[in-house]
Design goal:
Number of strands: 13
Largest sheet: 7 strands, parallel
CATH architecture of the largest domain: 3-Layer(aba) Sandwich
Shape: globular
Bound molecules: ligand GMT
Order of helices and strands: EHEEHEHEHHEHEHEHEHEHEHEEHHH
CATH superfamily of the largest domain: Glycogen Phosphorylase B
CATH class of the largest domain: Alpha Beta
Protein backbone atom coordinates (compact mmCIF):
# COMPACT_ATOMS: atom_id res chain seq x y z
CA UNK A 1 0.00 0.00 0.00
CA UNK A 2 0.98 3.63 -0.48
CA UNK A 3 0.28 5.44 2.75
CA UNK A 4 0.62 9.07 3.78
CA UNK A 5 1.33 9.58 7.49
CA UNK A 6 0.90 12.88 9.33
CA UNK A 7 1.83 13.45 12.96
CA UNK A 8 3.53 15.93 15.30
CA UNK A 9 7.08 15.07 14.28
CA UNK A 10 9.11 16.54 17.10
CA UNK A 11 7.10 16.18 20.25
CA UNK A 12 5.30 13.51 22.22
CA UNK A 13 4.33 9.90 22.09
CA UNK A 14 1.90 10.19 19.20
CA UNK A 15 4.76 11.24 16.92
CA UNK A 16 6.86 8.34 18.17
CA UNK A 17 4.08 5.84 17.45
CA UNK A 18 3.43 7.33 14.00
CA UNK A 19 7.11 7.26 13.10
CA UNK A 20 7.71 3.74 14.39
CA UNK A 21 4.58 2.61 12.53
CA UNK A 22 5.92 4.11 9.30
CA UNK A 23 9.30 2.42 9.83
CA UNK A 24 7.66 -0.97 10.49
CA UNK A 25 5.30 -0.66 7.51
CA UNK A 26 8.16 0.36 5.21
CA UNK A 27 10.17 -2.64 6.38
CA UNK A 28 7.20 -4.80 5.36
CA UNK A 29 7.33 -3.35 1.82
CA UNK A 30 4.74 -0.57 1.96
CA UNK A 31 5.53 2.83 0.51
CA UNK A 32 5.38 5.41 3.31
CA UNK A 33 5.10 9.17 2.83
CA UNK A 34 5.50 11.33 5.93
CA UNK A 35 3.76 14.68 5.41
CA UNK A 36 4.85 16.84 8.35
CA UNK A 37 6.40 20.22 9.16
CA UNK A 38 9.79 18.66 9.86
CA UNK A 39 11.38 15.26 9.58
CA UNK A 40 10.12 13.01 12.42
CA UNK A 41 12.88 12.85 15.00
CA UNK A 42 13.26 9.08 15.02
CA UNK A 43 13.87 8.93 11.25
CA UNK A 44 17.37 9.00 9.83
CA UNK A 45 16.27 9.92 6.32
CA UNK A 46 18.04 6.84 4.95
CA UNK A 47 15.30 4.24 5.45
CA UNK A 48 14.14 2.37 2.34
CA UNK A 49 10.52 2.95 1.21
CA UNK A 50 10.20 6.09 3.34
CA UNK A 51 9.72 9.53 1.84
CA UNK A 52 9.48 12.82 3.66
CA UNK A 53 7.42 15.78 2.40
CA UNK A 54 7.88 18.97 4.34
CA UNK A 55 4.86 21.19 4.91
CA UNK A 56 6.05 24.76 4.46
CA UNK A 57 3.82 27.54 5.75
CA UNK A 58 4.26 30.88 4.06
CA UNK A 59 4.39 33.75 6.48
CA UNK A 60 2.68 36.64 4.68
CA UNK A 61 2.71 39.79 6.90
CA UNK A 62 -1.10 39.81 7.03
CA UNK A 63 -1.13 36.45 8.84
CA UNK A 64 -0.78 36.85 12.54
CA UNK A 65 -1.27 33.08 12.69
CA UNK A 66 0.10 31.34 9.57
CA UNK A 67 -2.53 28.82 8.37
CA UNK A 68 -0.66 25.55 8.95
CA UNK A 69 -3.82 23.45 8.66
CA UNK A 70 -4.43 24.70 5.13
CA UNK A 71 -0.81 24.28 4.07
CA UNK A 72 -0.98 20.72 5.42
CA UNK A 73 -4.23 19.97 3.56
CA UNK A 74 -2.72 21.28 0.34
CA UNK A 75 0.46 19.23 0.74
CA UNK A 76 -1.57 16.12 1.60
CA UNK A 77 -3.63 16.52 -1.59
CA UNK A 78 -0.52 17.18 -3.73
CA UNK A 79 1.39 14.19 -2.37
CA UNK A 80 -1.66 11.93 -2.64
CA UNK A 81 -2.17 12.91 -6.27
CA UNK A 82 1.49 12.74 -7.32
CA UNK A 83 2.28 9.43 -5.62
CA UNK A 84 -1.19 7.88 -6.02
CA UNK A 85 -1.60 7.29 -2.29
CA UNK A 86 -4.18 4.72 -1.21
CA UNK A 87 -4.77 6.23 2.20
CA UNK A 88 -3.87 8.98 4.64
CA UNK A 89 -3.26 8.01 8.25
CA UNK A 90 -3.22 10.95 10.65
CA UNK A 91 -2.09 10.75 14.26
CA UNK A 92 -3.69 13.14 16.76
CA UNK A 93 -7.07 14.52 15.77
CA UNK A 94 -6.29 18.23 15.95
CA UNK A 95 -5.77 19.63 13.38
CA UNK A 96 -4.68 16.65 11.31
CA UNK A 97 -8.04 14.99 10.75
CA UNK A 98 -9.57 18.24 9.54
CA UNK A 99 -6.67 18.85 7.13
CA UNK A 100 -7.09 15.29 5.85
CA UNK A 101 -10.80 15.89 5.38
CA UNK A 102 -10.04 18.94 3.24
CA UNK A 103 -7.48 16.97 1.21
CA UNK A 104 -10.06 14.22 0.66
CA UNK A 105 -12.57 16.79 -0.59
CA UNK A 106 -10.00 18.44 -2.86
CA UNK A 107 -9.24 15.11 -4.50
CA UNK A 108 -12.89 14.12 -4.71
CA UNK A 109 -13.46 17.22 -6.83
CA UNK A 110 -11.08 15.58 -9.36
CA UNK A 111 -12.84 12.22 -9.10
CA UNK A 112 -10.12 10.67 -6.87
CA UNK A 113 -10.85 8.79 -3.70
CA UNK A 114 -8.57 9.39 -0.71
CA UNK A 115 -9.83 7.81 2.52
CA UNK A 116 -8.24 8.83 5.80
CA UNK A 117 -7.85 7.18 9.17
CA UNK A 118 -7.49 9.14 12.41
CA UNK A 119 -5.63 7.58 15.32
CA UNK A 120 -6.53 9.10 18.67
CA UNK A 121 -3.68 9.22 21.19
CA UNK A 122 -5.06 10.85 24.28
CA UNK A 123 -4.57 14.52 24.90
CA UNK A 124 -6.31 15.24 21.58
CA UNK A 125 -9.41 13.87 23.35
CA UNK A 126 -8.83 14.32 27.07
CA UNK A 127 -7.40 17.82 27.09
CA UNK A 128 -7.36 19.63 23.77
CA UNK A 129 -10.55 18.15 22.40
CA UNK A 130 -12.48 19.07 25.52
CA UNK A 131 -11.53 22.73 25.39
CA UNK A 132 -14.89 24.06 24.33
CA UNK A 133 -13.52 25.97 21.37
CA UNK A 134 -12.03 22.78 19.89
CA UNK A 135 -14.81 20.38 20.79
CA UNK A 136 -17.05 20.76 17.69
CA UNK A 137 -14.20 20.63 15.17
CA UNK A 138 -12.57 17.66 16.91
CA UNK A 139 -15.86 15.77 16.86
CA UNK A 140 -16.38 16.69 13.21
CA UNK A 141 -12.91 15.42 12.27
CA UNK A 142 -13.54 12.14 14.08
CA UNK A 143 -17.01 11.57 12.65
CA UNK A 144 -15.90 12.40 9.12
CA UNK A 145 -12.88 10.05 9.24
CA UNK A 146 -13.17 6.92 7.11
CA UNK A 147 -11.69 4.98 10.00
CA UNK A 148 -10.82 5.79 13.61
CA UNK A 149 -8.47 3.92 15.90
CA UNK A 150 -7.69 4.46 19.57
CA UNK A 151 -4.56 3.31 21.34
CA UNK A 152 -6.42 1.76 24.28
CA UNK A 153 -9.91 0.59 25.19
CA UNK A 154 -9.99 3.33 27.81
CA UNK A 155 -9.45 6.00 25.14
CA UNK A 156 -12.11 4.46 22.88
CA UNK A 157 -14.66 4.57 25.70
CA UNK A 158 -13.62 8.08 26.75
CA UNK A 159 -14.00 9.31 23.16
CA UNK A 160 -17.48 7.80 22.91
CA UNK A 161 -18.54 9.43 26.17
CA UNK A 162 -16.94 12.82 25.60
CA UNK A 163 -17.96 13.26 21.98
CA UNK A 164 -21.06 11.12 21.73
CA UNK A 165 -19.47 9.21 18.85
CA UNK A 166 -21.42 6.06 18.04
CA UNK A 167 -19.50 4.95 14.93
CA UNK A 168 -16.85 2.21 15.07
CA UNK A 169 -13.60 2.99 16.88
CA UNK A 170 -11.06 0.24 16.42
CA UNK A 171 -8.69 -0.33 19.34
CA UNK A 172 -5.15 -0.94 18.12
CA UNK A 173 -2.82 -0.69 21.08
CA UNK A 174 0.63 0.83 20.99
CA UNK A 175 3.55 -1.37 20.14
CA UNK A 176 7.29 -1.67 20.48
CA UNK A 177 9.92 -3.35 18.35
CA UNK A 178 11.02 -6.08 20.76
CA UNK A 179 14.26 -6.69 18.85
CA UNK A 180 15.35 -3.07 19.11
CA UNK A 181 14.00 -2.52 22.62
CA UNK A 182 15.70 -5.28 24.56
CA UNK A 183 18.29 -5.65 27.26
CA UNK A 184 21.65 -6.50 25.75
CA UNK A 185 23.90 -7.42 28.73
CA UNK A 186 27.12 -6.42 26.93
CA UNK A 187 25.78 -2.96 26.09
CA UNK A 188 24.49 -2.54 29.64
CA UNK A 189 27.87 -3.55 31.09
CA UNK A 190 29.62 -1.04 28.84
CA UNK A 191 27.27 1.92 29.37
CA UNK A 192 25.81 1.62 32.85
CA UNK A 193 28.96 2.76 34.73
CA UNK A 194 28.48 6.20 33.12
CA UNK A 195 25.23 6.61 35.06
CA UNK A 196 25.50 4.51 38.24
CA UNK A 197 28.07 2.61 40.26
CA UNK A 198 27.77 -1.16 40.61
CA UNK A 199 26.28 -0.87 44.11
CA UNK A 200 23.73 1.78 43.11
CA UNK A 201 20.22 1.33 41.74
CA UNK A 202 19.35 3.32 38.62
CA UNK A 203 15.84 4.74 38.18
CA UNK A 204 14.62 6.28 34.93
CA UNK A 205 11.87 8.57 33.71
CA UNK A 206 11.14 9.38 30.06
CA UNK A 207 8.66 12.03 28.91
CA UNK A 208 8.13 15.45 27.40
CA UNK A 209 8.13 17.07 30.88
CA UNK A 210 4.63 18.48 30.59
CA UNK A 211 2.58 19.04 33.76
CA UNK A 212 0.49 15.93 33.03
CA UNK A 213 3.64 13.83 33.60
CA UNK A 214 4.10 15.11 37.18
CA UNK A 215 7.88 15.35 36.99
CA UNK A 216 7.97 16.87 40.47
CA UNK A 217 6.53 13.61 41.81
CA UNK A 218 9.36 11.78 40.05
CA UNK A 219 11.92 13.94 41.83
CA UNK A 220 10.16 13.62 45.19
CA UNK A 221 9.90 9.84 44.96
CA UNK A 222 13.52 9.61 43.90
CA UNK A 223 14.69 11.81 46.79
CA UNK A 224 13.03 9.43 49.26
CA UNK A 225 14.52 6.40 47.51
CA UNK A 226 17.98 7.97 47.49
CA UNK A 227 17.70 8.70 51.21
CA UNK A 228 17.10 5.00 51.84
CA UNK A 229 19.39 3.22 49.35
CA UNK A 230 22.26 4.18 47.05
CA UNK A 231 20.53 5.31 43.87
CA UNK A 232 20.69 7.56 40.83
CA UNK A 233 18.00 8.87 38.49
CA UNK A 234 18.20 9.34 34.74
CA UNK A 235 15.69 11.86 33.37
CA UNK A 236 15.26 11.49 29.61
CA UNK A 237 13.42 14.24 27.73
CA UNK A 238 12.80 17.92 28.06
CA UNK A 239 9.91 20.31 28.27
CA UNK A 240 8.11 22.97 30.29
CA UNK A 241 8.64 21.45 33.77
CA UNK A 242 12.36 20.83 33.48
CA UNK A 243 13.44 23.95 35.38
CA UNK A 244 10.94 23.25 38.15
CA UNK A 245 12.39 19.73 38.42
CA UNK A 246 15.94 21.12 38.59
CA UNK A 247 14.87 23.58 41.26
CA UNK A 248 13.22 20.86 43.36
CA UNK A 249 16.26 18.60 42.97
CA UNK A 250 18.41 21.40 44.41
CA UNK A 251 16.00 21.97 47.29
CA UNK A 252 15.94 18.25 48.11
CA UNK A 253 19.73 18.07 47.68
CA UNK A 254 19.63 15.28 45.10
CA UNK A 255 20.88 17.31 42.14
CA UNK A 256 24.20 15.41 42.08
CA UNK A 257 22.39 12.11 41.87
CA UNK A 258 20.23 13.04 38.86
CA UNK A 259 21.34 12.88 35.23
CA UNK A 260 19.27 15.25 33.11
CA UNK A 261 20.18 13.76 29.73
CA UNK A 262 17.69 15.84 27.68
CA UNK A 263 15.95 14.69 24.52
CA UNK A 264 17.51 11.52 23.15
CA UNK A 265 16.93 9.72 19.87
CA UNK A 266 18.08 6.25 20.87
CA UNK A 267 16.21 5.67 24.10
CA UNK A 268 16.48 1.92 23.43
CA UNK A 269 20.15 2.22 24.46
CA UNK A 270 19.40 4.08 27.70
CA UNK A 271 16.28 2.38 29.07
CA UNK A 272 17.87 -1.07 29.60
CA UNK A 273 20.50 0.47 31.88
CA UNK A 274 17.85 1.12 34.52
CA UNK A 275 16.37 -1.07 37.26
CA UNK A 276 13.06 0.73 37.53
CA UNK A 277 10.99 3.32 35.66
CA UNK A 278 8.89 6.00 37.35
CA UNK A 279 5.73 7.11 35.49
CA UNK A 280 3.53 8.96 38.02
CA UNK A 281 1.40 10.71 35.36
CA UNK A 282 -1.87 12.46 36.02
CA UNK A 283 -3.21 10.76 32.89
CA UNK A 284 -1.90 8.33 30.27
CA UNK A 285 -4.16 6.95 27.60
CA UNK A 286 -1.61 4.20 27.15
CA UNK A 287 1.87 4.94 28.54
CA UNK A 288 4.23 4.17 25.67
CA UNK A 289 7.31 5.07 27.72
CA UNK A 290 6.45 2.32 30.20
CA UNK A 291 6.00 -0.19 27.38
CA UNK A 292 9.38 0.73 25.88
CA UNK A 293 10.96 0.23 29.30
CA UNK A 294 9.15 -3.07 29.84
CA UNK A 295 10.47 -4.41 26.54
CA UNK A 296 13.93 -3.60 27.94
CA UNK A 297 13.06 -5.65 31.07
CA UNK A 298 12.52 -2.53 33.19
CA UNK A 299 9.27 -2.58 35.19
CA UNK A 300 7.46 0.61 36.18
CA UNK A 301 6.05 2.23 39.25
CA UNK A 302 3.13 4.05 37.67
CA UNK A 303 -0.30 5.52 38.35
CA UNK A 304 -3.58 3.67 37.91
CA UNK A 305 -4.95 6.06 35.28
CA UNK A 306 -6.39 5.88 31.78
CA UNK A 307 -5.14 2.95 29.73
CA UNK A 308 -2.17 2.14 31.98
CA UNK A 309 -3.90 -0.88 33.63
CA UNK A 310 -4.26 -2.37 30.12
CA UNK A 311 -0.46 -2.57 30.08
CA UNK A 312 0.65 -2.85 33.69
CA UNK A 313 -0.70 -5.60 35.91
CA UNK A 314 0.31 -5.14 39.52
CA UNK A 315 -0.77 -8.62 40.54
CA UNK A 316 -4.36 -7.77 41.46
CA UNK A 317 -5.68 -9.92 38.60
CA UNK A 318 -3.69 -12.89 39.83
CA UNK A 319 -0.89 -13.03 37.26
CA UNK A 320 2.79 -12.40 37.93
CA UNK A 321 3.05 -8.61 38.45
CA UNK A 322 4.91 -6.76 35.70
CA UNK A 323 4.90 -3.41 37.55
CA UNK A 324 3.15 -1.55 40.37
CA UNK A 325 0.22 0.89 40.24
CA UNK A 326 -0.72 3.69 42.64
CA UNK A 327 -3.10 6.60 43.00
CA UNK A 328 -2.00 9.88 41.43
CA UNK A 329 0.16 11.91 43.83
CA UNK A 330 0.67 9.15 46.39
CA UNK A 331 4.36 9.87 46.80
CA UNK A 332 4.69 7.95 50.07
CA UNK A 333 3.25 4.73 48.66
CA UNK A 334 5.31 4.99 45.47
CA UNK A 335 8.54 5.67 47.38
CA UNK A 336 7.97 2.85 49.87
CA UNK A 337 7.15 0.42 47.08
CA UNK A 338 10.23 1.46 45.09
CA UNK A 339 12.52 1.08 48.11
CA UNK A 340 11.14 -2.33 49.02
CA UNK A 341 11.34 -3.59 45.42
CA UNK A 342 14.86 -2.26 44.85
CA UNK A 343 16.03 -3.98 48.05
CA UNK A 344 14.65 -7.33 46.92
CA UNK A 345 16.78 -8.75 44.08
CA UNK A 346 14.63 -11.78 43.39
CA UNK A 347 11.32 -9.88 43.35
CA UNK A 348 12.84 -7.25 41.07
CA UNK A 349 14.19 -9.93 38.75
CA UNK A 350 10.78 -11.66 38.56
CA UNK A 351 9.05 -8.36 37.79
CA UNK A 352 11.63 -7.45 35.12
CA UNK A 353 11.06 -10.83 33.48
CA UNK A 354 7.28 -10.42 33.61
CA UNK A 355 7.58 -6.92 32.10
CA UNK A 356 9.57 -8.21 29.15
CA UNK A 357 7.15 -11.12 28.70
CA UNK A 358 4.13 -8.80 28.59
CA UNK A 359 5.81 -6.66 25.93
CA UNK A 360 6.71 -9.73 23.91
CA UNK A 361 3.43 -11.57 24.24
CA UNK A 362 1.07 -8.66 23.64
CA UNK A 363 2.71 -5.50 22.32
CA UNK A 364 5.46 -6.44 19.87
CA UNK A 365 5.37 -4.69 16.51
CA UNK A 366 5.13 -8.10 14.83
CA UNK A 367 1.76 -8.59 16.56
CA UNK A 368 0.31 -5.08 16.21
CA UNK A 369 1.42 -3.96 12.72
CA UNK A 370 -0.69 -6.64 10.96
CA UNK A 371 -3.72 -5.19 12.79
CA UNK A 372 -3.03 -1.82 11.16
CA UNK A 373 -2.51 -3.48 7.77
CA UNK A 374 -5.79 -5.32 7.91
CA UNK A 375 -7.61 -2.19 9.12
CA UNK A 376 -6.14 -0.21 6.22
CA UNK A 377 -7.34 -2.87 3.79
CA UNK A 378 -10.85 -2.78 5.24
CA UNK A 379 -11.06 1.01 5.09
CA UNK A 380 -9.70 1.19 1.54
CA UNK A 381 -12.09 -1.55 0.35
CA UNK A 382 -15.05 0.16 2.05
CA UNK A 383 -14.18 3.49 0.51
CA UNK A 384 -13.74 1.99 -2.99
CA UNK A 385 -17.03 0.19 -2.83
CA UNK A 386 -18.77 3.39 -1.73
CA UNK A 387 -17.38 5.48 -4.62
O1 LIG B 1 1.64 12.77 26.69
C1 LIG B 1 2.40 12.56 25.75
O2 LIG B 1 3.45 11.94 25.80
C2 LIG B 1 2.02 13.10 24.45
C3 LIG B 1 0.86 12.41 23.90
C4 LIG B 1 0.84 12.54 22.43
O3 LIG B 1 -0.23 12.37 21.89
O4 LIG B 1 1.84 12.82 21.77
O5 LIG B 1 0.87 11.07 24.38
C5 LIG B 1 -0.30 10.32 24.27
O6 LIG B 1 -0.02 9.38 23.24
C6 LIG B 1 0.96 8.39 23.58
C7 LIG B 1 1.21 7.53 22.35
O7 LIG B 1 0.07 6.91 21.90
C8 LIG B 1 0.46 7.58 24.78
O8 LIG B 1 1.39 6.58 25.11
C9 LIG B 1 0.29 8.54 25.97
O9 LIG B 1 -0.27 7.81 27.04
C10 LIG B 1 -0.66 9.67 25.59
N1 LIG B 1 -0.59 10.69 26.66
C11 LIG B 1 -1.64 10.98 27.41
O10 LIG B 1 -2.72 10.43 27.32
C12 LIG B 1 -1.41 12.03 28.44
Amino acid sequence: MKIGITCYPTYGGSGVVATELGIELAARGHDIHFITYSQPFRLTGREANIHFHEVAVSNYPLFEHPPYDLALATRMAEVAEFYALDLLHVHYAIPHSVSALLARQMLAANGRSLPFITTLHGTDITLVGLDHSYWPITRFGIVESDGVTAISSHLRDRTREAFGVTSEIEVIQNFVNCDVYTRNPELVAAMRPRFAAADERLLVHLSNFRPVKRILDVVQVFARVAAAIPARLMLIGDGPDRSAAEHLALQLKVQDRIHFVGKQDNVNELLPLADLMLMPSEMESFGLAALEAMACSVPSIATRVGGVPELINDGQVGEEPNGLLFEVGDISAMSEAAISLLRDDSRLAAMSKAARKTAQDHFCASRIIPQYESYYERVIARSRSAS
